[in-house]
Amino acid sequence: MKKIFNSNQAPQPIGAYNQSVFINNMLYTSGQIAINPKTNKTEFGDISHETRLVMQHLEAILAEAELRFEHVIKVSIFVKDISNFAEVNKVYSEYFNQATAPAREMVEVADLPRHANVEISLIAAKY
């Protein structure tokens, strides 16, 4: 059975979707951008700040499903400027143990919702 998990510590969806869906012991998150959940405004700044805020949103969503970053098996990262790879990767790496880190891609895109500079989604497994 499909179960929906939404956290009030992450921004509420801005369209017809939920923050995450849990089915068959797998959690699929929607892409998260640097929206302040208290103000519903996008927080622009340096890419490290945006990435950290996005990772905090994902952490809150994982917690709603009683999961942690160690349960993550796949991450998708979308950036508007691939030259920010090192800064995004530095913040991202704070959340994972390198030896057990999930599979991942980072892709440059033309634009993101609300003109954010980074969007991240993930898949986690409850085991």
Describe the structure.
With 127 residues, the protein is an alpha+beta fold. It has a single domain, classed as 60s Ribosomal Protein L30, Chain: A, CATH 3.30.1330.40. Helices cover 21% and strands 29% of the residues. The chain has 2 helices and 8 strands. A 6-stranded mixed sheet has the order 1-2-3-8-6-7, covered by helices on one side. Strands 4-5 form a two-stranded antiparallel ribbon. A hairpin with a 4-residue loop joins strand 4 and strand 5. It is globular, with a radius of gyration of 14 Å.
Detail the topology: elements first, then pairings:
Elements: E1 3-5, E2 20-23, E3 26-29, E4 35-36, E5 41-42, H1 47-64, E6 72-79, H2 85-93, E7 103-108, E8 118-125
Parallel strand pairs: 6-7
Antiparallel strand pairs: 1-2, 2-3, 3-8, 4-5, 6-8
Helix pairs in contact: 1-2
Indicate the proportion of strand residues: 25-35%
Can you count the helices? 2
CATH class term: Alpha Beta
Which CATH architecture?
Answer: 2-Layer Sandwich
CATH topology: 60s Ribosomal Protein L30, Chain: A
Described by the principal axes of the CA atoms, the overall outline is: globular
> Which radius of gyration do the C-alpha atoms yield?
14 Å
Q: Output mean pLDDT.
A: 97
Count of strand segments: 8
Amino-to-carboxy terminus distance: 17 Å
Main β sheet profile: 6 strands, mixed
User: Helix and strand string, N-terminal first?
Assistant: EEEEEHEHEE
The domain count comes to 1
Strand order in space, largest sheet? 1-2-3-8-6-7
CATH evolutionary superfamily: RutC-like
Roughly what percent helix? 10-25%
User: Low-confidence segments, ≥5 residues, pLDDT <50?
Assistant: none
Overall structural class, as computed from helix and strand content, comes to: alpha+beta
